[in-house]
Amino acid sequence: MNGNNLALMAWRNLWRHRRRTIITISGIAFGLLLAVLFTGISDAGYGNMIDYAARLRGGHVTVQHAEYLDKPSLSRTVSDTRAFTERALVEPGVTRVVTRISGEVMLSTAGKNYGAGFIAYDPASEDAETFGMLKSIGQTPEDGEAFADAKGRGIILGARLAKNLGVGIGKKVVYTMTDKQGEIITGMSRVSGIIRTGGPSVDGGICLFPIDTIREALGYEVDEGTMVSIFLDDHRDARQLAAKLQAQVGDQAAALIWSETQPDLAAFISMKVNGGIFLEMIIAILIAAVIFITLFVSVMERLREFGILLAIGCSPGRLSALVLFESFWLAIVGLGAGILLTIGPYLILAEKGLDLRAMMGVDKVPEISGIAMSPVIPFGIYPENAVIIAILVVVATLLSGIYPAWRAARVVPVDTIKLV
To answer: Are residues 36 and 109 located together in one domain of the fold?
Structure first.
């Protein structure tokens, strides 16, 4: 028997027990569906989460003072941010580069004081693509609007923070912070906008300033800030870019990726991804067990047949190849059935995403590590991960056939031919 004959015989053998084969193929297809669903949520969902967090904080890669991460202070700055911006923009995959100032501030009104975090940004260089919080400003006519330029005198407050301070649009707020030399400075601004993200930490603990106003108040130079935020097409390129920029800037600053500047978010995503991988491994083991049982039972039922084949001159190696061909056909047909089963749900989820609003409540917004996330999780899978899943399905199925193939080759003709 040549290879073509063995493949044809293996194909016919599979359909001698049609029901069992269909059940096995269904198991493979269902396993593929689950693997794609888990991976699709991980790839697009957590990728979107990373992008969203980057737009709210320091970008996919952040260039900042070497000691700022461990000891955040408005005295630890990066100078000549224009040069850092020019270096980053020539790198492939970089979409935007912006400079920000962030730190802590004390806000006061006539009878109330609240501490908050602040971010000073340049309205001319930033929009919702780099600073997601801007989408949540001025959602109603009573909530004002974002800054028009970098030299404005206004302040934008989170909705809950404004409520706690008892102020609205046009009201005065006194801010107190420590400048570059460590001196306490005080200023006054009128509320020009309200942020409504739905996230308690953001709405209750963040305020925004025009960057040039804060530069002047803190004694910064015209191109000085606490961070240079770099945004990428693909967050997976962040580590490579950070390493390249670090080699360029040397000891002047530290180039950090999002997971280093936001360790809580990175830990959450890592936990979820590893949990998904663990579940996929369990599914893979269960599917492999089903395939193994199918092939092993098939071999045990055909021991007499194998004995006759050996007696008339078929080699043990060809018997092993016959069983392996059966597992190969199971893999190919199972993979094809899995693709057909997955296409429909995949296209629906890719278009609409995974909507959690019914589960969480219409007015509630998920918050992770202080970052308000969209309740609609996008869905999609990286092409390379889809290829990996397909390869693993085929490999797992072939591996499941190794022992049954070995058992078929160990048949003793004299013993098995006597079986009835």
So the answer is: no
